[in-house]
Amino acid sequence: MDYFAPPVERLIEEFARLPGIGQKSAQRLAFHVLDMPKEDAERFASAIREAKEKTFTCKRCQNLTDSEECPICADKSRDQKTICVVADPRDVIAFERTKEYRGLYHVLHGTLSPMGHVGPDDIRIRELVQRIADEGTEEVILATNPDTEGEATAMYISRLLQPFGIKITRLAYGIPVGGHLEFVDEVTLTRALEGRREL
């Protein structure tokens, strides 16, 4: 038995397909959209359409942009010899918020995952290797997540880049600020010890 009119049911189904959105959240979002004034709903739909039509990847770093080259790659004041490799465009935003990193990025758009059938040709590794061959890069910072897929991706890229003779580094891992040692897992604690530095 259908509880909602078919157009409403379809809207709920589309919201439910978004990551992290369950059935109840999808219903809440659908009814919120239905309660919007018509102009607001049209503006919302237009924003989705425009984002899909006008957003593509930067020819250099693969980050999302609406021009041929993203603003970070176009900024000549940034360190052109250092590339921070991240899995996702959202990771670029996280680094930029720190205002500490002044190099360039390379977005892989995923990580290696044999279980998920994601291999080297499914993410932007080839473009990274080409950049390093062409641009005179001196350091690559591997900043994939410290999970199984992220570690496998970092190791794979590290081995792939070895012949270039450049500096390859991995982000340090440790105890989060405000964390308590008793709640930290053994792997994180081991990494924190390995990555310790002099004060």
Automatic annotation (TrEMBL):
Residues 81-176 form the Toprim domain. InterPro entries: DNA_Rcmb_RecR, Rcmb_RecR, Rcmb_RecR_Znf, TOPRIM_dom, TOPRIM_RecR. Keywords: DNA damage, DNA recombination, DNA repair, Metal-binding, Zinc, Zinc-finger. The keyword NAD does not apply. It comes from the Bacteria. May play a role in DNA repair. It seems to be involved in an RecBC-independent recombinational process of DNA repair. It may act with RecF and RecO. Belongs to the RecR family. PANTHER family: RECOMBINATION PROTEIN RECR (PTHR30446:SF0). This is Recombination protein RecR. It comes from Agathobaculum hominis.
